[in-house]
Amino acid sequence: MIGYYVHHHGLGHLHRASCIARHAQSPVTGLSSLDPPPDWPGEWIRLPLDTGGHTAVDTRAQGRLHWAPLFHDGYAERMSVLAGWLGRARPALMVSDVSVEVACLARLMGVPVVVVAMRGHRLDAAHRLGHDIALRLLAPWPAAAPEPGWPSSWYDKTIYASAFSRDDGRVPAPPPADGTRRVLLMLGAGGSGITFAQVRAARAATPRWRWDLLGGPGGAWSADPWPRICAADVVVTHGGQNAVAECAAARRPTVVLPQDRPYGEQQATGRALRDAGLAAVRDHWPAPEEWPSLLDEAAALDGDSWSRWAPGDGARRAARALDALADPSAAS
Q: Does the global pTM surpass 0.85?
C-alpha cells in the first residue's frame, strides 16, 4: 500500500495525486484536508486543518521546519491522525506532496518516503531536511530541464516523470477556423494578484483578439477547462505546474506570467520554460502596449514542441516508479 499526502492549498497537488493514483497498481490511500476527487481509486483519510484557533507559536521550529506550531490543537490532531494511520496501515511507501513535517513523521515511523519536488529556492534548512531523508524525489518535469543548484545527492535520487496533467490522453481539437484570433486568460485557484483593470486594459490594447476569461477577475472558473484551452490560439496563464501541464497537454502556444509564490516556484518554472523555448515568458504583467507583440510572439510558437515537456505518459511513469519502490515485483 502507498500513502499519498495531498497539500490543501490550491488544486494542483490534488490533480497530480489523482493522476498518479489512477495509474498505480498498488492500493493508494489519500490523506488530505481536501475532499477526495470523484475518481479517486482508493481510501481517503480526511485530515483536520492545522490552522485557525489561537495564535501559532514557533511555527518553523527555529527554522528547521515549515509549519509545526507549538501547543496548537489543530496541528496536534492532524499529526495524531496521520501517525495513527501510519501505525495501523503500515504502508510500504509514503508520498509527501508536499510537507516536510509529514515526510519526517513517516520516516520517523520507519516508512520510506518519496517527496514530490517543486522548483524554486529549496535550499533552506527545512527543505534540505525533507529532501535529504527522502528515499526518492519525484520531479514532475523532464530530465532535460533540471532545477539548477541542487546538491548532487538530490539529482542522483530524482525520478524525472516529466510534466503531466489530468488531460493526458485527450485528443486536442484545433481552434475554430473562422478567422477569429482567440486568447484564453486562465488563472488558478491559488490567487493571481491580477486586477480587473489590468485585464480590461490588455483587452482594449488587442482589438484583433477575442479574450476568454477563466478564473481571476471577471472570469468564472470551470471544473473542466480543456475545451476552452483547445479553442484558444494562445493561452495566457500563471506558472503553476498544473496549469502549464494542461496547456502542454493541449499543445497550445502559451504565455506564462509567473505569480509570486513561496520560494520563487513559478519564477523558476518560467525560467525553465524560457530556456527551453517552450513558452513566451514575462516576469510581470505586461503594459497594455506590449500585449499585441506578446500575443503574436506566442502565436508563432510550435505547440507540438510541448511534447518535450509533457510527452503524455508522465503520470504512468510516476506510478510505475512508486509501484516499484512499494513492491519491486509490481514494476513492469
A: yes
